[in-house]
Amino acid sequence: MNLFFLLIYFIIITGVIEIFVILFRLTDLKLEVSRFQVISLMTGTGFTTGESELILGHPVRRKLATFLILFGAFSLAVIISSISTILSDDLRTKEVLYGAGAVLLIFAILKLKTMQTKLSEVFKQDMKQNIELGDLPIRDIFMSEEQDKLLNLHIYKESSLFHKQIKQVIHDYEQLEFVVLFIQRGELKLRKNIYHTKIHEGDQILLFGEESVISKLFKNDIKIMEEKLKDSQHTPVSEHQSL
């Protein structure tokens, strides 16, 4: 009887996994990523990949992940307890069957196209109405258009901006489709008068704007940065390529 209970409970776990795979997919997460992250969350293993940022940086997915972590811990306790009480008469198989039926019913409902469409709309509406901008991933904030680009430009002695002000190199910067968000200088973030600030070696300039404009204006500086970073085998804090 205990083995039968475990079999039923594993069916429940499988059903929960598939339910949350569907829910994660409704937040625009890829199928293969969804399944791996759901299993990782439930088992508490492997959830240290770069893909975990897709969960942690999204408020709706983060709430779903919280439930999965708690359910995984509870399930582990149930399985261990069941194995340790093999042939115990205390197991209520009838109630577990009801639970398994409920999970399968929810799974069947979530497979319906109409239900997925409605839930997807609810998730998106929740994102728009109840989530602060600071909770959203950088991609969702900045990369709203295909031509958008976020560039973390490292400055070296060979750079055209070295020991100069941005306004001296780009005279008509106010009319161009890009902005300087801030200048990272060591532990400091410079936000005031950044177009009139003299650029030092080691500065990192965070730029945002139209990709074609940024690539053209800072072509030589980007080339120098790529060569330097390649030689030192160092990866920038924020990748200079489009996120």
Task: Summarize this structure as a short list of keywords or feature phrases.
alpha+beta; 10 helices; 4 strands
Oligomer: single chain
Along the chain, the helix and strand elements come as HHHHHHHEHEEEHH
Question: Low-confidence segments, ≥5 residues, pLDDT <50?
Answer: 234-243
User: Strands of the biggest beta sheet: in what spatial order?
Assistant: 1-4-2-3
- Overall helicity: 55-70%
Main sheet overview: 4 strands, antiparallel
The backbone outline, from C-alpha atoms, is elongated
Which range does the strand content fall in? Answer: 5-15%
From the alpha carbons, calculate the radius of gyration and give it in angstroms. Answer: 26 Å
Mean pLDDT metric: 78
Distance between the termini: 53 Å
The number of helical elements comes to 10
By secondary-structure content and strand pairing, the structural class works out as alpha+beta
Number of strands: 4
Q: What does the model show?
A:
The structure is a single chain. With 243 residues, the chain is of the alpha+beta class. It has ten helices and four strands, in the order αααααααβαβββαα. The protein has helices spanning 2-25, 31-43, 52-56, 59-84, 93-110, 113-130, 138-142, 166-169, 211-217, 219-232; strands spanning 148-154, 178-185, 188-190, 204-210. A four-stranded antiparallel sheet has the order 1-4-2-3. β2 (178-185) and β3 (188-190) form a beta hairpin. α1 runs parallel beside α5 (93-110) and α2 crosses α4 (59-84). The longest helix is centred in the N-terminal third of the chain and has 26 residues, at 59-84. It is elongated, with a radius of gyration of 26 Å. It starts with a helix and ends in an 11-residue tail after the last helix. Residues 234-243 have low confidence and may be disordered.
